[in-house]
Amino acid sequence: MSKTILEIKNLEKFYENGVHALKSVSFDVKQGEFLAVIGLSGSGKSTMLRCINGLVPSSSGEINFQGQDIISLKSKELRLARKSIGMIFQHFNLISRKSVLVNVLSGSLAKVSLFNGIFAKFSKKETDKAMSNLELVGLKDKAYIRADELSGGQQQRVAIARALMQDPEILLADEPVASLDPATSHSVMDHLAYINKELNKTVVCNLHFLSLVRKYATRVIALKDGKLVFEGSPLDIDEAWFKRIYGEQAREVGIE
Amino acid sequence: MNKFKTTESFENHISKEKRSAKAKAFFINFLLSFYLFFSLFFSSSYLIYEKNILPSFFYFILLAFSFIFSLLWTSKNSSLGSMAIYKTNKFLKNRKELQSEFNLFSFSGIFISLVLILTILLGSILVDINLYLLFSSQGLSGAKRIFSALFQPNWNIISQVLSSMVDTIFIAFLATFIAIPIAFFFSFFAARNLMKNSLLGNSVYTVIRFISNFTRSVEPLVWAVIFSVWVGVGPFAGMLALAIHSVSSLIKLYSEQIESVGQGPLEAIESTGAHPVLVVWYAVVPQIILPYLSFTIYRWDINIRMATVIGLVGGGGIGTLLVQYQGLAQWNEVGTIVIVIASVVWLMDYLSAKLREAIY
Ligand SMILES: Nc1ncnc2c1ncn2[C@@H]1O[C@H](COP(=O)(O)OP(=O)(O)OP(=O)(O)O)[C@@H](O)[C@H]1O
Ligand SMILES: [Mg+2]
User: Which residues contact A220 (CB under 8 A, 6 or more apart)?
Assistant: First the structure.
């Protein structure tokens, strides 16, 4: 058994409007695994991912990462911890008016001084690394194009390259392919799988389609109404479990 | 801010929230009903006796009556105050049992229509509308005199008028120019999405919003009066008045722009662990530069119009010249000035619209 990299214990989240989005959620993430998080819309998947890197403050519980509890960190320590946690989003969240290269370099902003950051002075080393990360996602020739001129799939690959600039221990992906067509989805997922296997980065990924889960994930957890209702291998999700997670009315659709 | 640790603390909070919402609803109902009863008696008194015959103790009776009336009224969720508060409170607006729909033929609907009718009645009593003055032969001959003079401008003073106009344009320009960096800096601290995450941020936000709302709600005309006492009558006073008002108006426009930027890039840069200043610099600034430019040009446009008015109270430029000729009842000269102001304002308006179009 490989070692635990992230340990979540009794995580609770109340939003300010009173929505109880996470109810005593506990699970471990192992070094090097590809963990998929599934559940209906509104079940709390995004909330949970955002709690892990503190984008959303948790209400109570523990999130142990690298020997510290994310929840109790002060803002400066939290920023330090975030350096080792990459994140990619459903809507890519690139800076649309900036070039692809600047977008990738923005992943290393935590490493530069305020002055260098403001004047966009990045060292040769960082720029080289940005180029090689772009090469990794197959977009080296697009480095100087404005980010909003790329297609959705390309933008998501830029976002992956940006996250790689952090040399993350763990990569959080919030429905990374939900706004992409099936073919593009597979290409983006293949890149994530490559990063997971070849670069040995742990991935925690919210996914909508079970077919993607079965193809890419090594383990699955399921949330329902903010509670953890399933934890196991993708192959264990049979008809009965599917109905329990998604409700009696649900029918599985695939993505080819 | 993680306010709620448990379900109980949340339910506690809801009942506290309900109590304070009730108090607010009562206050609104109280003000509304007092206003209704007061305007009812006040305008009846004017309509019947042509003056106010209400004795002062009568106001106390009205107050007491409105108090009791609104106490009873607030117990219903369909009272105007309750509807207003329950619909806007973020904790209570999802609670079906508290909500009720507005209906024009309900008690509240009739109440609000009465308030509207009485306000129009009260307004026409207070403003002292007098159609006789507007259409009497004496009034009409005065109108004829001023209009004919205005349409026969005296072009001999044109160089004097133009040089004052140039003063005015520069007053407006300088005021806008000085306001830009100050408003740019403070707008970030006045944007809710950037500041409301911490206690310190929240207090800075509140203070800056308060100051800028206050300075903005004082008209530039009043600022000009203040500065003309402070630094003496002249263009400098006018410039300061416009600058201070521009700062607060631009802070409002700018910060609303910041509040409307896409949160996505902000979250993305924040999650890399970057310093908050760099988060704003990378994720917010690129999104707001063009709208800022457009707002600023628009503000300059407004400032030119305001600069002419400010001159009337000692802010220098063309307005001051206008007051001088008006004081001497030299209506032909006033006509020249009005024509110049109108053309310049129109031209600047046109230019600013074109510029802003080009930016987008
Ligand atoms: N910022 C917020 N403020 C208040 N409530 C929120 C906020 N974000 C999410 N919620 C609520 O929390 C619950 C969980 O939302 P979350 O976005 O985590 O679900 P999700 O599983 O990611 O859904 P989806 O598949 O639609 O993305 C929902 O009921 C949602 O309405
Ligand atoms: Mg989500």
Answer: A35, A36, A37, A38, A213, A230, A231, A232, A233, A234, A236, A237
